[in-house]
Amino acid sequence: MDKETEKVLDSEMESSAEMPKQEFYITKFEKDLLPEFELEKEFFEEIYSMPGGEKVKECIQCGTCSGSCPSSYLMDHSPRQIFAMIRAGMRKDVLESNTMWYCTSCYYCYVRCLADIKITDIMYALKRLALRDKNIKIPDIKPVRFMESFSALVKRYGRNHEPIFMALYYLSTNPFSMFRQLFVGLNLFIRGRLPLIPKKIKGADDVKKLMEYAEEEEVR
Amino acid sequence: MKYAYYPGCSLESTNKAYDISFRAIMYHLGIAMIDLEDWNCCGATAYISISENVAFVVSGRNLALAEKTGATDVIAPCAACYLTLRKTHEYMMEYPEIYAHVNSALQKVGLSYEGTLRIKSPLEVIINDVGLDKMRIAITNPLKGLKVACYYGCQILRPRTDFDDPEEPTKFEELMKAIGADPVYFSFRARCCGGSTILTYEKQALRMSKNILLSAKREGADIIATTCPLCQINLDAYQRRIEREFKIKLNIPIVFFSQLVGLALNHTYKEMALDSSIISPKEVLKPYIERTTKVKES
Questions:
Q1: Span B3-120: which CATH code?
Q2: Chain B: nearest CA to A39, how far in angstroms?
């Protein structure tokens, strides 16, 4: 170590010694940490009870998931951090982050995970938990509207239909951004790739019945 | 082996070309498929994010319908459908509570699913069931010298990994070699195109697609062949936007693997619906197209 870096280090040591110790060590996250008896036990239950959810306990924090993720650079907390936060019981921070909403379901993390955690499935589970809890503020409403439009359409027709889906989605988010899609839509339409009239399947009522039945089961 | 065919929503509308060309090559190879009647949407990634129960039940209906026809295998050309159906099947077999739940719901509409099916992607059917040797014999218009970038997409490789290596796959390239083309290795061939976020987080999705297109272009590919309808739309319909956004020149046509196989089986450009690609592959495929029409005339 050369003399200059030594000097810098020394001065840093001094300055830290001057500071009141408690404040120096409390970071943003540590403030939210609770003693073990106050942790929200239900959160563990919610995660661990899903198929394959137990594996979250075995996360070794290697960071392979974060390194494999094509959108981790956009996330509030990388997937690795999310697993640490789940185990620290930070329910609100986890569910209010944008991490799971940026997941594109590419399954790279899933196949690479050393602990065999079904990461993509956990992301879906986090989305469901965030949607179900009314006290959770979801950072971006767009993906929620995306899914709602999709499921409304299938409930009605039994199948997806792109033009109506796009219309539903854009009307519920930002109608003006629909114009940017116009060029793409037009190009598809010219080549006969955008049928305007939706086909309703014969069993559409069956599909609706099934969905409603399953939704009721979920609430119970 | 008895196949049931589950096309999925996108093959009915935006990606008819895949449906047309795949049916044509299956007919050509002499493989019968039972058309599934009155199937519904598989749910893709949308339901599983709202309710796991609904997701499994909705795609369970399709499995039940397929089982009822007496088929042993279901062919799901759309990668998202393939993954969803397969996931439902596997979770039903692995977790008895899911099996019981799905079947109790299906009972309400007079259906049930026992779990006798295998779900396959078209690539799997052609490579494993038909076999590349049979393909080589059937080819009459080999695509010699055509540099094809084989783009796998995500969901036929991951997370179920029994078809090919999830990160360094090779089978698609082997099929392209069998039809006479020159597959080009490019590093983004199994990466995600961002298809599921194209409407919600457009910038991110365009960036991911750009990487794939640039990577294939740099390796000198003439054309990209894909197996996933969502990837096709993303790379093809949004390519002009990507060019504008990132100020690059790409102009690389995206087609389905089945369209190229069909061309090699001496079907014409029109029959394979190659004109439905927005970036036209006409220029690139010119020598092979001319040959098909010539053979047909004589």
A1: 1.20.1050.140
A2: 26
